[in-house]
Amino acid sequence: MITFEGVTKRYADGTVAVDDLSLEAPTGAITVFVGPSGCGKTTSLRMINRMIDATGGRILLDGQDVREIDPPTLRRGIGYVIQQAGLFPHRKIVDNVATVPYLLGWDRKRARARAMELLELVGLDSELAGRYPFQLSGGQQQRVGVARALAADPPVLLMDEPFSAVDPIVRASLQDELLRLQSDLQKTIVFVTHDIDEAIKLGDMVAVLRVGGRLAQMAGPATLLSEPADDFVREFLGRDRGIRRLSFIPAKDVRLVTAPADLVVDASGRPLGWRGDGGLLPYGTFNPERDSLRAALDAALLAANGTAVAVDEDGRVIGVAPREALDEVLGQYAARYTVPDPEDPYEEGGHQDTGHQGAGPEDPAHEDPAHGEDPHG
Amino acid sequence: MGDEPLVRWDWIWRNWDTGRPDSILALLESHVVMAFLPVLFGLLLALPLGLASARWRWLYQPTVSVMNVVYSLPSIAVFIVMLAITGLGQATVIVPLTFYSLAILIPAVVDGLTSIPDHVRNSAVAMGFTPLRRLVRVELPLAVPVVLAGLRVATVSSISLVSVGALIGQGGLGYLFIDGWQRQFTTPIVVGIVATVLLAVLADGLLVLAQRLLTPWRRA
Ligand SMILES: Nc1ncnc2c1ncn2[C@@H]1O[C@H](COP(=O)(O)OP(=O)(O)OP(=O)(O)O)[C@@H](O)[C@H]1O
Ligand SMILES: [Mg+2]
């Protein structure tokens, strides 16, 4: 766990980049620092591994003040990933990844073997190991950056806008990859971004910072969407908060009924379309075990009859969710302000996130359901 | 010069290696020594001075200014002043040329170090490099291309400047120019020019080769 206790950073020129910041980044979870440019995200992150020293307050790493630890030692135990990957241009990919193991005094063979393991873990071809960074695409370099940060298996990972320099498609796949890795590795991750969608997609906890380095709100993503603490946070979150919040509600509670004969399936039970006058009509599917309510709703909206087709892992029809069934769950959640965030230590307040403005029905975004894609899709 | 041919091959042949200090081979040898030692000394001095200037930026401007002043001094004047200090030896040429090399190499070292992108330097810090190790393992290797570029300029200009020393009796191949001029005899002049150019081309080629070998990591 990383604890900020009244941390302040005043630069030599008088700029207060971070002002009395207190928060906790829980062990094994992704905590995202998000906020507009210049709000002190990078400064906050770098105070954790002492690339910048705080001028007030303290930062504890599992209870120990980071200032008591010699910086190089501290840093070798903390992975660090940045926007431009920061790879060493003069070292081959495998040696880039093995950097921290080398620093820790591992022998060359073991360090390289570990590096090869990591390249595979982040989904890179082992053929790339012998190349130099300039011979890799931006997305590949970024993966190498992640592999390098993980090489010595540090319990803590700091990531400063690691995916913002790549195109949206690569970004999305890197984000998915990170979530997949994290579900196996359970690192304590502090992730900095200025992109609220990225924050909501990746964060177990999201800390919204405002310019001047003040914490505006810290909450789980679903709570953040339904209960922004103030106008700043609400504005920062942008439109469609209600719909986006549905991404955090699993679709497993949607009541399914037996598929009607109108739904044409192939020999193995996979859907082909809804029977219509002039042939098959479009349909939409969701997987109740894996998908969110947002995906279910999306599936319903894709079909002319407003019925979502539920499928299993293999894509075979297991039932359908008629409009009334979706209505029931939506009603359930619309009536409730808060979706329980997994292990949300801030649920009970003590922070500024207890304002119950809610995702009220006055939110115009609710009338615009066909908007956007499921970020967890 | 009348009917005299531009180059008399028999003269070259006779004077190639007479064992005397004014044979072509002996002049070539002293030229090489007087051209390369200053570059070597210059590099050895430029590394610490450049490192210091890159580390303490306020040092950089004064250092560069002093070096530029040195560089702007006419070489012949410097040689003559040196004559009073070091006498009629090779040192009279080597010492001033070392300063000329420094004037080129200090900025090269500083530029090499400052050309390293912040994100690379920062990530080295964040990985847990100690300052010394970062310098040796990351910063110096990354400065190599710029330093080598400076080394090429310093080497070629050193090779050409040595000849001026002939006016004070220590000019390597430059002696051939004076000799030819005094005797109104073109062959030594042509030999001097060709040999100097070949030497420069060869030295530069070797440095380019070194660059290829030392920095396989650069975009071609
Ligand atoms: N070395 C420095 N000296 C003085 N002021 C600084 C320094 N570094 C950052 N600042 C200032 O501190 C504030 C916070 O900077 P920081 O880099 O932490 O912001 P950020 O949230 O990471 O912004 P971005 O999203 O643009 O990366 C800014 O106002 C910045 O200008
Ligand atoms: Mg930043």
UniProtKB/TrEMBL annotation, chain A:
Q: Name one GO molecular function term.
A: ATP binding
Into which family does the record put it? Belongs to the ABC transporter superfamily.
> Region (Disordered) spans which residues?
336-377
Q: Which Pfam families match?
A: ABC_tran
Highest taxon, organism lineage: Bacteria
- What keywords is this UniProt entry annotated with? ATP-binding, Nucleotide-binding, Transport
Q: Which InterPro entries match?
A: AAA+_ATPase, ABC_transporter-like_ATP-bd, ABC_transporter-like_CS, P-loop_NTPase
Upper lineage ranks?
Bacteria, Bacillati, Actinomycetota, Actinomycetes, Streptosporangiales
Where are stretches of biased composition, namely Basic and acidic residues? 363-377
This protein is called ATP-binding cassette domain-containing protein
Q: Where is the ABC transporter domain?
A: 2-236
TrEMBL record, chain B:
Localization per Swiss-Prot or TrEMBL: Cell membrane; Membrane
Identify the keywords attached in UniProt to this record, alphabetized.
Membrane, Transmembrane, Transmembrane helix, Transport
The transmembrane segments are 32-52, 64-85, 91-113, 142-169, 189-210
Among SUPFAM superfamilies, the record links this protein to: MetI-like (SSF161098)
- Residues in domain ABC transmembrane type-1? 28-210
Identify its membrane topology class: Multi-pass membrane protein
Give the superkingdom in one word.
Bacteria
Would the keyword Protein transport turn up in this protein's UniProt record? no
User: What's this protein's family per the entry?
Assistant: Belongs to the binding-protein-dependent transport system permease family.
- Supply the name of the protein: ABC transporter permease
Species, as recorded = Microtetraspora glauca
